[in-house]
Amino acid sequence: MNAEEKFWEALRRLSEEIDRLKESQKKTDEQLRKTDEGMKELQRLIKDLSNNVGGLNRSFGKIPEALSEPQIEEKFEEAGFRVLGAYPNIWGKYNNKKKEIDLLIKAKREGKSYIIVVETQVQFRAKKEIDDFIGFLKKDFRKYFDEYAGMKVIGCVCALKFSRGVDEYAMEKGLYCMKPVKGIMGLINPKNFKPEEF
User: Fold this and answer.
1) pTM for this predicted structure
2) How would you label 56-91 residue by residue, b for 16+ Cβ within 10 Å and e otherwise?
């Protein structure tokens, strides 16, 4: 084979190699497109799952609220209050932020008007959760609910379960505590309990 034939043979092989590379690039592009579509679908599924789990968590959070609400009037009347109304899931607004209260109770005792703010969770796990709730009652409650500015505020924490010592800590801090007692939600504070007024 002379030099000219070798040149044309090399050019033909190069052309075939370029065609193979183009075909390979098409396959790679197709695989990348499919991978990209798969990633988008995975992101959509994760978002859907996240929304569903969030909704489930919110639903679980409503369980102690739903269990406590029917007994709330009776339990606080046993503690010496005259309950005037119970209002679930109310919200207030301050500085363009909303704050929801799980259950707000209007009550009277010994001639004084009270607002009892009930915070419900499936479980109170840490003392910090109690401290945060007390901080809200002391510093922020009247900002979000200024219509109760002239009333004493009392706090109550309600859960299906309290981690070890958290319920005792809440009572030491002056909060009422509700949890299941003999199959129903009940106040676990001693009869002579004096709540903290905020």
Assistant:
1) 0.67
2) eeeeeeeebbebbbebbbebbeebebebeebebeee
Of 154, 76, 166, 181, nearest in space to 121 by CA: 166
In angstroms, the CA 180 to CA 187 distance is: 9
* SS3 category, 79: coil
Give per-residue pLDDT as tens, 139-197: 999 999 999 988 899 999 998 889 999 999 999 999 999 988 777 778 889 988 999 99
Domains of the chain: 62-187 (3.40.1350.10)
The number of angstroms, rounded, from the C-alpha of 175 to the middle of its chain's C-alpha atoms is: 21
Closest CA to 73 of 89, 91, 88: 88
Element housing 147 (H / E): none
Structure tokens at 172: 């030491």
Between CA 153 and CA 196 the distance in angstroms is 8
Strand order across the beta sheet in which 152-162 lies: 82-94, 97-109, 112-124, 152-162, 176-181, 184-187
